[in-house]
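Here we describe the complex-level prediction in full. Unlike the single-chain runs in Section 2.1, the two entities below were treated as one system.
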Amino acid sequence: MKRSLYRRFIRSYFWFSFKQDPIAVTSFAIFFILIMLSIFAPLIAPYNPFDSGSIDIMDAELPPVWTGEGDSRFLLGTDIQGRDMTSTLLYGMRLSVMIGCGAVMLQAFLGVLIGLIAGYSGGKVDAVLMRMADVQLSFSTLMVAILISAIFQLAFGVSRYEEMAIPLLIVTIGLAEWPQYARTVRASVLGEKNKEYVEAARVIGLNPARIMLRHILPNTLSPVLVISTVQVANAVMSEAALSFLGLGMPVTKPSLGALINSGFEYIFSGSWWITLFPGIVLVIFVLVVNLLGDWLRDVLNPKLYKG
Amino acid sequence: MIDKAGILKVDNLVKHFDISGGLLEQLTFDQGRIRRKEVVVKAVNNVSFTIYPGEIFSVVGESGCGKSTLARTCIGLYPPNSGEVYYRGERIDNLSARKMLPFRSKMQMIFQDPYASLNPRMAVRQTLEEPVRFHKKNISDSEIKDRVAEVMLQVGVDPLWADRYPHEFSGGQRQRISIARALMVDPEFIIADEPISALDVSIQAQILNLLMDAREERGLTYMIITHDLSVVAHVSSRVAVMYLGNLCELATAEMVFESPGHPYTRALFSAIPKIGRKKADHIQIKGEVPTPINLPTGCVFHGRCIYAEDRCRNEIPALTEADTGSLIACHGIEEGRL
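The structure predicted for the assembly as a whole is:
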């Protein structure tokens, strides 16, 4: 009678509605390609843009191949330092996705934990934690990020900052947006905690941690999944915004945002490709993730479909 | 004095709920002054009774009279505001979670809504295994498997379905699984909170019979919360009648049906339709149940009682033994007026 996980998945409503929705399939295909390109960037990219030895400043600002003035070595042209745009783009996307996913994992961890505790404990604990979330939300992500990175740069110096940029950005964006998760999880915990299966677990004598993690958490995961997609898009955007402001990735290791920024100064002198290509990739990635999130929300919304 | 013979003894149990929210929500502006006002629902007031081993003790009353709160307070889901709960002579209402553990496997609870009482993300096997694994740490996997199969057979669910999820079962089957979960830890006392009221009439009898069979096989004691008077007549040995959080009559099932004492009990049990009875036999009570937030003074039933006198309006009647042997909380009965 035990059915394999694969067969359960194939026969599920989830898979069925995915197949029915061309937008979801297309979005997922593009998302998958972008993720694969990011993961395997070192294998696919023709050059290593982080290796300063291989860069020749004489190649700087070459336009894309099809404009006629380009160099056949550089498909999408080069940036102002002479790096191959294709490779820089792939590596940049890799960094952006890495920071985005890392930040969302941190947000989800903090937010789910705080939301669970607040919702399940109620009373003063709930009030204190949720007011913390409100205060946190009243600062914009950028403000928190600017504060943290400014303090860090002051404390450790700019050279150390370049090494630490990736974890620092993950922590910054992660800390700035956990209340989104905390609020959503708390709301669903409040709905679940008075249901009789939770009371049954309490009658058995299980401790609160176990009830929260084993009984309540699995029943609050669908909204978490939905906001995760939106939050990945948001985190990538935040990272791009921070890098654009010069508070994110350094020029030597540019993410999509840093690339857009570095090309921005040259856009009026004709080098449009340095900004345009990372911009397009960023927009496509964010759009695709948001479309997937929309679809996921529709599928997992218990009001539209009861599973 | 502690009554050793009782399996569960409840002494002057009081449970109030504060529904006024946080400090800011409690503040009201009244006649130029800010004052703090707490709104309290008095769900259970000074309830005392003892349940003896082997009994089927029913608690009846209309919706909102505090039956479910009483059940949940007895089993320790809610801490009482005052009063004591004893299990076989040991006080359990003030125990820490750790000290409460041995009692958790002796007392179990069956819930009303079979659609809410099983965790939708856990297969039946996981749901049933969890309490055993938790209470008997050194039990082997094969023993647990046997036990799950045994209990599932007993409640009438095919053990082959153990790996299915709750949504694959019907309401009656779910209630069986819910009963199985309670039986897994080998309890001796089960509190059933409206175990059949969410089910189809045809399924109700099956579940009731299942509960009675389980009682015979395992020597269980039940406390059944219900508003279904035919269930009361069918199974219970003693009946407690509740009105607005107060116990108004406690008697054997025959006594309650044959000669109910308390005016409320009379009205309640006259509401059971009987073949050949004229409509005039109904005792109609006027008005509506007052809110449990502002309890009436004196006897909680006085506003709707045709026998109410001044004493009823001012003095809360105590549960006293009537000539018939029933315990009744009514000044009229005590004075011999009724």
